[in-house]
Amino acid sequence: MSEQQTGIPQQVDPLVVRVLAPNPSPFTYTGTQTHLIGTTDLAVIDPGPDTPEHIDAIVAAAAGRPISAIVITHTHRDHSPGSRPLAERTGAPIVGCAPLVLSDTGPRLEAGFDVDYVPDRILADGESVSGEGWTLTAVHTPGHTSNHLCFALPEAGALFTGDHVMGWSTSVVAPPDGDMADYMASLERLMARDDRVYYPAHGDPVESPRRLVRGMMGHRKQREGQILRLLREEARTIPALVERMYAGLDERLFPAAGRSVLAHLVDLRNRGIVAETGDVWSYA
User: Fold this and answer.
1) Closest C-alpha among 73, 55, 75 to residue 198
2) Mapping DSSP to helix (H, G, I), strand (E, B) and coil, where does residue 9 land?
3) What parts of the sequence cross the membrane (predicted)?
4) What are the extents of the domains in the chain?
5) Are 204 and 127 in contact (CB under 8 A)?
6) All residues at 6 or more sequence positions from 86 whose CB lies less than 8 Å from its CB, including other chains
7) What gap in Å lies between CA 95 and CA 83, rounded to an integer?
8) CATH class of the 223-283 domain in this structure
9) C-alpha 150, offset from chain centre
10) Considering only CA atoms, which of 10, 5, 83, 99 is closest in space to residue 46?
11) CA separation (Å) from 131 to 15, 169, 248?
12) Closest alpha carbon to 167 in 200, 141, 143, 139
């Protein structure tokens, strides 16, 4: 895939154009990718942050064609706030995931929850929104967030994976809303599908979906194994685990890594494998 430029429409499939938002960061990679679906009337998936230049770029990419649905995978602030100005500009309804109001004081301040998100229609698992020549069907994939949806586009054999599966990194699973057991179950669900390609919100299209998902599941199992080996040696705090597990990691990402380790620990605790005393975790 050729290098993507902010605000420039890029055709990735006869039915799919992507537009990159100007919000690069250690968590968003090159930025949030908004996808426009269709050829006559359009759906817009994840219009991204409320950035006027990005909303202008989406409208320009539509090139006068009507936008009939604004579709949201989840309500982190790098995905859904742009839905409101885009709806005001186009009159399109906002559809997709349920609202989620949760105070998140964690390390991803730019990806905290969009508390002002109000959809016109919530799509349950298996429900669809459609236009001329396209259908988007919701696939409930909790884990990264409890309200996360992927969207299948059967006309292209494609799945829009939001942040559940990304094209550059594994997803952050951060308690209290992020749940490792749910995340792994959602990956298992994707393994059972036969999608030809994934279009994530961050990173390039994934052209070997099952291979990537299998690798992601193996990576999480490896992290779990690391935690258990370290706790068998001695009880440790989360920062001590992160220091041992993430050698060479950008220090700006240490807090997020700590949340991911916490997600594993909560899952292991719920399975009766580890225990916590204050901020110290031990092998049960």
Assistant:
1) 73
2) coil
3) none
4) 10-207, 223-283
5) no
6) 44, 47, 55, 58, 59, 67, 70, 92
7) 10
8) mainly alpha
9) 9
10) 83
11) 12, 32, 47
12) 200
The backbone torsions φ and ψ at residue 90, rounded to the nearest 5 degrees and listed phi first, read -115, -20
Q: Are 159 and 139 in contact (CB under 8 A)?
A: yes
Same fold, 10-207 and 223-283: no
Q: State the average pLDDT over residues 189-198.
A: 97
Tens of pLDDT, residue by residue over 115-170, are: 999 999 999 999 999 999 999 999 999 999 999 999 999 999 999 999 999 887 78
**Strand blocks (E) in the chain:** 10-13, 16-20, 33-37, 42-45, 67-72, 94-96, 121-122, 128-131, 134-140, 149-153, 158-162, 197-200, 236-237, 274-277, 280-283
CA pseudo-torsion sign 162, 147, 143, 112: positive
- Tell me what percent of the residues of the chain surpass a pLDDT of 90: 82
Asked if 133 and 155 touch (Cβ cutoff 8 Å), the reply is: yes
The strand ranges marked E within 230-284 are 236-237, 274-277, 280-283
For the sheet with 33-37, list strands across it.
Answer: 10-13, 16-20, 33-37, 42-45, 67-72, 94-96, 121-122
Cα dihedral value 258, 263, 267, 270, nearest 10:
80
Query: In CATH, what class is 10-207?
Result: alpha beta
Q: How far is CA 127 from CA 138, 176, 280, in A?
A: 6, 27, 44
Q: What does the block give as tokens for 278?
A: 């204050």
Which runs of consecutive H residues, i.e. helices, occur in 64-198? 83-90, 180-191
- Cβ neighbours of residue 40 closer than 8 Å, sequence gap 6 or more: 65, 131, 132, 133
